[in-house]
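Workshop exercise sheet. Pairs work together: one partner reads the sequence aloud, the other fills in the structure field after running the prediction. Swap roles for the next sheet.
Pair: D.N. / O.F.
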Amino acid sequence: QVQLVESGGGLVQAGDSLRLSCAASGRTFGSYAMGWFRQAPGKEREFVATITWSSGNTYYADSVKGRFTISRDNAKNTVYLQMNSLKPEDTAVYSCAAGVIRFLSQIRDEGRYDYWGQGTQVTVSS
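Structure field:
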């Protein structure tokens, strides 16, 4: 049974940093891409960042590029999202996801991700 378990969310002030973790279990993820998505109240879920498990290639939404960094620890089967210079508009439930991505055009498509975590709340106050 595949499980993705997020942790690390919380309440911070604008300009602060947080690191989210996503612990993956239940299968080997060597051919998978691991992504972070977020959903703010009243808005649709949006792509944040993705890393390919095998090669470590990373992809970011323009809104977080330069502030967020996605990384992975193969030994721990864990993916991280380091979030710096947080803004109130970053407030959302952040979820990690795993999927087989064959083309770059699929990176941002949540429908391509088969497994999802339960999400962790990030709240940034102004």
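Discussion prompt: The two ends are 40 Å apart (CA to CA). What would you look at next?
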